[in-house]
Amino acid sequence: MVFIAGDSKLKNQQRIGYLFISPWILGMLLFTIYPTVFSLYISFTEWPILIEPKFIFFKNYLEIFQDEFFFNSLWVTTKFAIYTTFPTLMISLFIAILLNTKIQFRGVLRTIYYLPAVLPTIAVALVWAFIFNKDYGLINGFLRTFGITGPGWLADPKVALLSISIMSIWTLCSTNIILYLAGLQGVPKVYYEVSTLDGANVVQQFFSITIPLISPIIFYTLVMSLITTFQVFTSAMMLTHGGPIDSTRFYVLYLYDTAFSYYKMGYASALAWILFIIILTLNYTIFKTSKIWVFYEGDA
Amino acid sequence: MIFVSAKIKHRLSYLLIYILLLAGTILIILPLLWQVTISLKSSNTIFELQPSFIPKEFKISNYSEAFKGMQFLRFFKNTVYISILTLIGTLFSCSLVAFGFSRTKFKGQNFLFFILLSTLMLPSQVTLIPMYITYAKLGLINSYFPLIAPHFFGDAFYIFMLKQFFSSIPKELDESATIDGCNTFRIYWNIILPLSVPALLTVILFKFNWVWNDFVNPLIYVNDQNKYTLSLGLYIFKASEKFGPKWNYLMAAATIMMIPVFTLYAIFQKRFIEGIATTGLKG
Q1: ipTM of the complex as predicted
Q2: Domains of chain A, start order
Q3: How many separate domains does chain B show?
């Protein structure tokens, strides 16, 4: 059917379209654009919330780059991101490969492996807080049966960061296993069959078939995990609240304390903008390399 | 060299796979099992040097203590209230906007959709402080307004997800409905929404999970103990107890908090897992 719409009809159509998306337009203006612009302004002020803001240009930013707590939090967060992300990657890839074999109960196993991701972080962190307890915790109790005296997992500044990593690996693996499993299921079985005929062993197959074909997903999950771990907050609040001796004072924890314990709104906003830039850079790397992994996806 | 037949080798490798996977599931279940165990122990048997998984007596009363004494029943109701309003807001706004982007035509559509996707990159910490200051000026701190209102204005991620789904519904349906005299809103309400129940269910599951587990927003906006959510209650009771946390009551409270999420997961696990696999979304 050939249909030529009148000018007014088209305009009316447009109006309906805008009407449908209007909630989002309004929401974007109120809850994204306005606070983002406002946040940038606040970051150029000194604002102890109760009195009026004072415009101080770049002073907050200059101060931040001389602030040892800032560098400490950045360092602690980076260490945490690395300690958490890479073991998560390796463990979940390993489990996904095992789950992708012709085993029975695959559905049940997959259900169990995914469980930690749906549970509330705050409740999970509470449980782990007691698991890590020096005297009555599950881990040290277990070690005691072998005559080993475990450390104060959350009380020792040398171990606390690692403990939060352990808990985070426990939760983060779930999502990654599901993603890797989905990726592995997309690899054509023929590739393995042919290479077996050619005499390739399992290890060779892993490095020359599996890894190249799911590398887009590996890269994607890696960057997403880095972004998630860089914003760690809830579990750290529950487990250590930044201590002992600032060994787990993560970036967002420092930002939160600056804003809501010391009410330095300007300084905290400047911290938020630096975080924004870091995350944008990480996002940019996904975007930049997406061509590579989209190509792979189409190829497989 | 000892000759091992291919069949035995094959069987052994599968045995190894089962053992490794079983070890993994034990590592996942053990903390949760221990949580339930502690939640059933009496206060003087929690602190033992040799952790045991079977309590000597099952103190169900810990749960009523958490519910009533520590007011977790109230926190539970508060969280349910916030979750329901959040879900209503999300479903309405996201489906309307997604419909607008997939089923109607207007100027600047692609550009606006690009803006929508780019807002996903903005970390929540950037808008947190200005919104806090704004709500403080409006006298809305210590109310649920800051927790609920934003959800009535669409959420970029779910709009994107629903748009993808709506686009897979054949356009011919709209055309024939128009010929039958349906206006655009009726197409949305009577045709697209009923056909999108699976996608809407996915939105409900993930959004519910998010709001139920949300900790940062209640922490910042809610001070009054009567208004605590479950997450805030758990945090405050763990942090502020004078003589150390009452672990058995807290574990009972944590279990209570996990039950709704756990139940939904048990019923809709397939949808959860598919949602993750197709979108890369975090639970």
Answers
A1: 0.90
A2: 65-299 (1.10.3720.10)
A3: 2
